[in-house]
Amino acid sequence: MRIAIFAAGSQGDIQPCLRLGKGLQRSGLEVLLAAPQNFAALSAGCGLPFHPLRGDVQEIMAGETGRRFMESSGASPLRSIAAMRKMLGPVAIQMAEDALEASRSAEALITLAVLAPLGRTIAELLGIPLLLVEPTPMLPTGAFAAPGFPVQRNLGSRLNRLSGFMMLAVIWQWYRPFVNEFRRQHGLPALRGSDFYRTLTATPLLGAYSPTVIPHPRDWPERVHVTGYWFQEGAGAWRPPAELAAFLAEGEPPVYVGFGSMAGRDPERLAQVVLDAVLKTGQRAVVATGWGGMHVTSVPKPVLALDSAPHGWLFPRMAAVVHHGGAGTTAEGLRAGVPSVIVPFAVDQPFWGRRVQSLGAGPAPVRATQLNKDRLAGAILSAVNDTKLRRQAEKVGEAIRAQDGIGNAVQVVRQSLGVP
Fold first, then answer.
1. Does residue 250 have a pLDDT over 90?
2. Among 116, 59, 119, 111, which Cα is nearest to 90's?
3. Number of C-beta neighbours around residue 100 at 10 A
4. What is the pLDDT of residues 393-420, one digit of tens each?
5. Radius of gyration over alpha carbons of the chain, in Å?
6. Is 258 helix (H, G, I), strand (E, B) or coil?
7. Which candidate, 160, 166, 188, 210, places its Cα nearest to that of 335?
């Protein structure tokens, strides 16, 4: 069977699709990844056939409008609509047309749940089944407040569920004009927000997160499968550069600090806050600069500046990990079994920060807008010195490492498509 996977967004959005594609490929299925051109090398590294989509979403998000969006969307989702439309306007329909072309020879389509209306349109045009994947929950539930909702605490069943519908409405408004223009061009009727919700509930949906972290809520349909995390294979065999190997060997396990592309509009200030906090704790640290992230020009002796390293290799060697709370980075921190300090910037990151806290695997998250030397130093010291917290992080890590997320996901895909 030939399967097309349509994905767009940041590297954190593309990676779960790559890992699922590789698992499906190993099970004997033919897989083609349709993603923005800038991910061609990443796909080639996984051995997946690739179809490029016009529009570099990662570059768009790194621009001024993207940075403003990441800074403000968590506080006011409604204000995010205009920014997202401005960013997506030049590329959305081109991307959809390219995804349609990539899927013409496919017998099934898999796409990110956030792109469900576009995936539904392509599947309708080609007469093929659709499956959805999500690294962060999207369906409304009474079990917790929706990721992206400004208030991240238990609001009670009714308000939790209402927050989910509110966030779905916001996401739908991000690209409603582009979806319906794409459908109009191909002779299909327009969709409404309620169609977005119905697509999510009526389509097999694979949650690429652990049931230890998010147990299947009772009010989700059986078509939603919480499979376990989808981790990169082979990270343990990675060979560190000599400087990193020497740094790890010369002292106690350090603290990792890295925020990926999250740095706001003042990456120099963020880097200084991090270095000052690390010095205040007296801990050794590995500081990852990331693409578009912190600007680190010089570091004191107990700190090593690092461009990047596979989290699956690096995190188990740390005393604690400090990061922005992206879905994939949070998963790696939890799997490593070391405490996590989450510094959320926007979108779903506050949700993951509260999840880690509720699991007892890390202290309370420190909002990026409230970050200073003292708050960050206090959180790091709590993560390193709190024995109860460290034991719980170890326990969560053991549970997650025992789960086969990709294997479970492959089984769900094959069963949903009737593949023996």
1. yes
2. 59
3. 20
4. 999 999 999 999 999 999 999 999 999 8
5. 21
6. strand
7. 210
Q: DSSP alpha helices (H): ranges in 103-148?
A: 116-126
| 418 vs 194: CA distance, rounded Å | 28
User: What are residue 304's phi and psi, to 5 degrees?
Assistant: -115, 125
**Of 245-249, 254-258, 298-302, 381-385, minimum mean pLDDT range:** 298-302
Can you say whether residue 282 is alpha, beta or left, with left for phi > 0 and alpha for psi between -120 and 50 degrees?
left
Beta carbons of 33 and 50 less than 8 angstroms apart: yes
pLDDT of residue 85 exceeding 80: yes
Q: How far is residue 15's CA from residue 399's CA, in Å, rounded to a whole number?
A: 22
Buried b / exposed e along 320-349 (16+ C-beta atoms within 10 A): bbbbbbbbbbbbbbbbbbbbbbbbbbbbbb
Give the C-alpha distances (Å, rounded to integers) separating 170 from 81, 114, 163, 167, 285: 7, 11, 11, 5, 39
Residue ranges of domains in the chain, CATH in brackets: 2-229+403-416 (3.40.50.2000), 235-401 (3.40.50.2000)
Which of the 8 DSSP states describes residue 150?
S
CA distances 262 to 89, 256, 336, 382, Å, are 23, 15, 22, 23
Rounded distance, CA 73 to CA 345, Å? 9
Name beta bridge partners: 34. 6, 51
Q: Are 405 and 335 in contact (CB under 8 A)?
A: no
Task: Tell me how far apart the alpha carbons of residues 202 and 96 are, in angstroms, rounded to a whole number.
Answer: 22
The stretches of 218-360 forming alpha helices (DSSP H) are 242-249, 267-281, 311-314, 327-336, 349-359
Structure tokens at 16: 């779960």
Residue 163 CB contacts under 8 Å (≥ 6 apart), including other chains? 140, 145, 146, 149, 151, 155
Q: What is the tens place of the pLDDT at every residue in 14-30?
A: 999 999 999 999 999 99
pTM over 0.85: yes
